[in-house]
Amino acid sequence: TAAGHRATTAAGHRTTTAAGHRATTSGRGRAAAGGAARPTAAAAAIVTDIVVCGLGPAGRALAHRCLASGMSVIAVDPAPSRQWTATYAAWADELPGWLDPAVTAATVARPVAWGARRHELDRAYVVLDTKRLQDSLDLTGAEIVAERAVRLDRHGVTLASGRTLTAERVIDARGIARSPARAEQTAYGVLVDETAAAGMEPLFMDWRADNGAHPAAPRSFLYAVPLGGGTMLLEETCLAGRPALDTGELRTRLRHRLRARGIALGGDEPVERVRFPVEGGRPGQRAFGAAGGFTHPATGYSVAAALAAADAAAAGENLWPPSARAVRALRAAGLRALLALPPADLPAFFDAFFDLPAPLQRAYLSGRTDLAGTVAAMGALFASLPAGSRFRIAAATSGIPVRSRGRGGSAIME
């Protein structure tokens, strides 16, 4: 609040701002008070079950499920009431049973993917209503601290104001910081009326070369999904790059592609810009969501995995058994393979992937702990590729530096 004191929100949780000093939880005792110095043993008696730092989709889902299980929760975020604006989507079979069905804005029963050929995927895909998703992850009963966490350890959080909070567990759900060393995904999209989309079918990814890019330039694909309410998102996406294509280039490509398909834009359409790392995070029990290594490096997806794992994380279960760590390593190898392929090879690569049986596709895209399925999918894909692609992938995944014949960092193994 303006005076920096405690305010009760409409949802029923209390919010403490940077000027406040003591945060009282919702009936389970007090968080530690004071400045930067560590509290005394008496003052630091831990009575709060968990502090969750970061209230994006992963952190908010974890805090919500902790509250649902009866835990006392402090949630820390510098802007806890900020409305999410990104588009979130998932495979329907990834979502947990506890999630309110009303958060689904649209369902695509059989989405389509294009490499050089058309593939109809036998797996339902859902686009989420971002506002409903955020609202459904209710935090009533949590202590909301509107500050920035600057130091986290096993039982404590130091805030930018110097305050400290203590709890039985501290979880970092603040996402991944950008870095030139990390591959990123970028996208530029417009929201259009479905009638203006000229009957375009929903597209999970479309790698066809009608976006005006030079044949040797890093590739991008079209993502086209309904958002509900008669609106469709048309988005040009750089799957992964180090560096990734900038959104200005993606805007140019999207407009060229849509013109080529007879879709006219008025110039006043709402715009979505996307840029986030697909590498990074720290697997373990003290981080969750993208911060905890949940981002699939070869797809960029993480929200559905976080939603699915929220109950297990709330219960303190081990989210990273050996199988999950091995899958993470294999997925990282998959990213290196994508970065190593010449741009012209990518459509054939994705044709081969979408020719795989649906269970193998599912294992690679969603099986965070499915080591056998991931190995089987990657092995089958590798065997189906041309010899030249197999050589480059083998070199990239073994760490041998091989430079692409194409131009641009998103097609070079670094």
From TrEMBL:
- Which SUPFAM superfamilies is this protein grouped with? FAD/NAD(P)-binding domain (SSF51905)
| Pfam families listed in its UniProt record | Lycopene_cycl
Classification via InterPro entries: FAD/NAD-bd_sf
Locate the region Disordered: 1-33
The UniProt entry, under PANTHER family, shows: OS02G0190600 PROTEIN, PTHR39757
Q: What is this protein called?
A: Lycopene beta-cyclase
